[in-house]
Specification:
- The complex is a heterodimer.
- By secondary structure, chain A is an all-alpha fold.
- The N and C termini of chain A lie far apart (60 Å).
- Chain A has helices at 8-24, 29-37, 43-48, 51-74, 81-105, 110-134, 141-159, 162-178, 191-199, 203-225, 235-254, 265-280, 287-293, 312-334, 341-348, 350-362, 366-390, 394-412, 419-454; strands at 4-6, 39-41.
- In chain A, 75% of the residues lie in helices and 1% in strands.
- Chain A has a two-stranded parallel ribbon with strand order 1-2.
- Chain A folds into three domains: 1-30, no CATH class; 76-225; 238-298 and 311-444, no CATH class.
- By secondary structure, chain B is α+β, with helices and mostly antiparallel strands.
- Chain B has two domains: 1-32; 33-186, no CATH class.
- Helix content of chain B is 32%, strand content 35%.
- Chain B has helices at residues 2-32, 59-62, 136-150, 178-186, and strands at 34-39, 42-43, 46-47, 51-56, 78-85, 91-97, 107-115, 121-123, 129-131, 155-162, 165-173, 176-177.
- In chain B, β11 and β12 (176-177) form a beta hairpin.
- Chain B is globular, with a radius of gyration of 19 Å.
- Classes of the chains: A mainly alpha, B alpha+beta.
- The A-B interface holds A 69, 72-77, 85, 88-89, 92-93, 96, 99-100, 103-104, 120, 124-125, 127-139, 141, 144, 147, 151, 154-155, 158 and B 4-5, 7-8, 11-12, 14-16, 18-19, 22-23, 26, 30, 47-53, 126-134, 136, 167-168, 179.
- Chain A: It comes from Kangiella profundi.
- Chain A: Residues 19-163 form the DUF2157 domain.
- Chain A: It holds the Pfam family DUF2157.
- Chain A: This is DUF2157 domain-containing protein.
- Chain B: InterPro entries: GDYXXLXY (IPR025833).
Chain lengths: 455, 187
């Protein structure tokens, strides 16, 4: 009879308990070893349960999958159509068999499940690719990736593999950067899965997937409106609103407790976006930026092109813009009391978008707008720094310092300001940067010593 | 668990059905479709998933295809291209229409590319990939290019057409399948 599988912990418990039974004379030592012999700790489970082994197994499965794809891409002309057809279906059948065995008979073996899920994911692509090759079916990478993705998403739900989740996320990200279509909508199909990860406290995986979603969606939206879209002049405002939305959604979902940079992708990406875009808006002469981003005089042309061709994607992005604004406002209303001043200022940056659009309609001078934005960033960054100091939060302090320093650095490239003044300001700010950090670290150390003394 | 097993079986079936359907469809076109000769010129690129192939630059891709009277057609629209044969026996696209042709008339279902000043459209023939091994693909390209410079070469793809879809049967040079031709010339 095959021994029953136990985890190491369970086996340890049994060993401990049975030692006591022997001592108390309930059983003798021969019986004890007989009982213990009926159970075995699964070698597979103990080996596969650690993260590093899981990573190695996933990597192995990805390599094997990639190898199959390459072998197939090689194209064996000497084989007939029949042989090649069998060869194209074979990896798929083998991967399906392995997946079947894993899900049906060994659902507790994470390593096996990961490996079979990843192999199945690649085998699907390999079989489609080889059939295309055998029959010279024309190549359309987008269609190929979409078919692959549509077969990959149910695989994720049924096999529940972390590797497949990452691959699906990466595939959507690829599609987001490939075409100016709203492929980010596919991320919505992952929401139930992510929710279950969150419930099961599989947080590392959850955060990773969320980073993919935030990056993919942002790239897709920026790419879709970057040029030749009726919304292209609003691009900077739409992105700013989206970042404000990410930030407030992050706070809303995960609460106001600090989780660290990687653990709250929504907040982190939102803040990065807000800081970056607000700095872009401080430029009067957009020439420098337009070298990098080909945006010209966004403020002067902030109007919607009503004559251009409006497609589904444009309306969708406009809705995203509207939803972002509405969400930000309702977040502010709901969390009115819990919001601190620096959070108000970060979210308030979205107002710069509204001011830009309204300002254009009302005929506000461009210079006035630029000055207002500069003052806003200056004040907000200083407030961020002081809040960081008051709350003993180094990340907040450095975030404020970075925002402030970049504002100054950008002004360095403004040709209208005299060099001597620039030099003095730079030395002053550089020293302040170093000084504040040293002073702050000292203060932390003192506090730690005081606490030790009290203890 | 039972539901999961059923769903898993369904997923497996779909995963197998997609390549299965692709094979079925291509076989149907190749066995039941009408053969047409499309003049072409191959060039050799590469696809990370599907390997080496030669892109077929069809002459029809360079021509402006007229619009059939009464048809309402725009750029980047899926249309029916009516097929015919010229005096030399090569396939030509006679016209583009937005209504499905009657049975008996062969056609290709394809997307228009952009509009020409005379009202016709440029199109792209979809069956533009001839897969070959890493060894053969560059040979096919260089053989055809080299020969084309010296003499007028007769390069075409035999395409089987059925219900608007086309599938490559063979790539021919001087009425010889390309692999035979390469073997022949390298001797």
């Amino acid at each position: 009879m095959e021994p029953k599988q136990l985890t190491k912990k369970q086996k340890h418990w049994l060993q401990y308990e049975s030692d006591e039974w022997v001592e108390q004379g309930v059983i003798n030592s021969q019986q004890q070893s007989q009982i213990l012999g009926r159970y075995s700790t699964s070698y597979v489970e103990s080996f596969y349960s650690s993260w590093s082994s899981l990573l190695l197994i996933s990597l192995g499965a990805i390599l094997i999958g990639g190898g199959i794809v390459l072998l197939i891409a090689h194209n064996w002309e000497s084989f007939g159509k029949g042989t090649r057809t069998v060869l194209s279906i074979l990896p798929l059948l083998l991967a399906q068999a392995l997946t079947w065995y894993s899900v049906r008979y060994k659902p507790q073996l994470t390593g096996l499940r990961e490996a079979s899920g990843i192999l199945l994911f690649f085998a699907v692509a390999a079989s489609i690719a080889l059939i295309s090759q055998t029959y010279h079916i024309y190549g359309d990478l987008e269609r190929f990736l979409v078919t692959w993705l549509l077969l990959g998403i149910p695989t994720l739900y049924l096999v529940e593999s972390a590797g497949v989740l990452m691959l699906v996320c990466a595939l959507i990200l690829w599609l987001c950067g490939l075409e100016r279509e709203p492929y980010w909508l596919y991320y919505l199909t992952l929401v139930p899965y992510l929710y279950s990860l969150y419930k099961r406290q599989r947080l590392v995986l959850f955060h990773w997937a969320l980073w993919f979603i935030v990056i993919g969606t942002t790239i897709s939206i920026i790419y879709s409106v970057a040029w030749n879209s009726p919304l292209d002049d609003w691009m900077i405002y739409i992105t700013l609103a989206l970042c404000g939305f990410y930030y407030s959604l992050g706070k809303w979902l995960f609460g106001f407790k600090e989780h660290g940079f990687w653990a709250n992708p929504l907040c982190s990406a939102g803040v990065l976006g807000i800081l970056f875009i607000s700095l872009l808006l401080t430029w009067e002469d957009f020439y420098f930026i337009s070298l990098l981003l080909t945006w010209e005089d966004f403020y002067r042309y902030s109007r919607l092109d009503t004559e251009a061709n409006w497609g589904f994607n444009d309306y969708l992005i406009l809705s995203v813009f509207a939803i972002s604004i509405v969400s930000i406002v309702s977040f502010l209303i709901h969390k009115f009391k819990s919001l601190q001043i620096h959070q108000w200022l970060l979210i308030g940056s979205v107002l710069l978008a509204g001011l830009g659009m309204a300002g254009f309609q009302l005929g506000l001078s461009e210079l006035v707008y630029i000055v207002l934005v500069n003052v806003y960033v200056l004040v907000a960054s200083v407030v961020l720094m002081s809040q960081g100091i008051r709350q003993h939060r180094l990340m907040l302090l450095n975030g404020g310092l970075l925002w402030f320093s970049f504002l100054v650095l950008f002004r360095f490239f403004d040709s209208d300001i005299p060099f001597v003044l620039k030099g003095v300001v730079f030395i002053f700010i550089g020293s302040a940067f170093i000084g504040v950090n040293i002073w702050y670290n000292k203060k932390l150390k003192q506090q730690a010593e005081q606490q030790e003394g009290q203890a | 668990m039972k539901l999961k097993i059923i769903l898993l079986i369904a997923l497996f079936a779909i995963q197998l059905a997609i390549p299965g359907y692709m094979i079925f469809e291509q076989n149907q076109i190749l066995t039941e479709g009408t053969a047409y000769k499309f003049k072409t010129r191959p060039i050799d690129p590469y696809d990370p998933f599907r390997g080496r192939y030669v892109t077929l630059a069809f002459e029809a891709n360079q021509e402006v295809i007229p619009v059939v009277d009464g048809a309402d057609i725009e750029s980047e629209q899926w249309v029916y291209a009516l097929l015919g044969v010229d005096e030399e026996g090569y396939a030509v696209l006679r016209g583009l229409t937005d209504t499905k042709p009657d049975s008996g008339q062969d056609y290709l279902y394809l997307e228009t590319y952009y509009r020409s000043y005379d009202g016709g459209y440029h199109v792209k023939l979809p069956f533009n990939r001839y897969y070959a091994s890493e060894k053969s693909a560059p040979k096919i390209e260089s053989a055809v290019w080299r020969r084309q410079r010296d003499e007028v070469e007769n390069v075409y793809a035999v395409i089987r057409v059925l219900n608007g879809k086309g599938s490559i049967e063979e790539l021919m040079v001087n009425d010889m399948p390309i692999h035979e031709y390469i073997a022949h010339t390298s001797e």
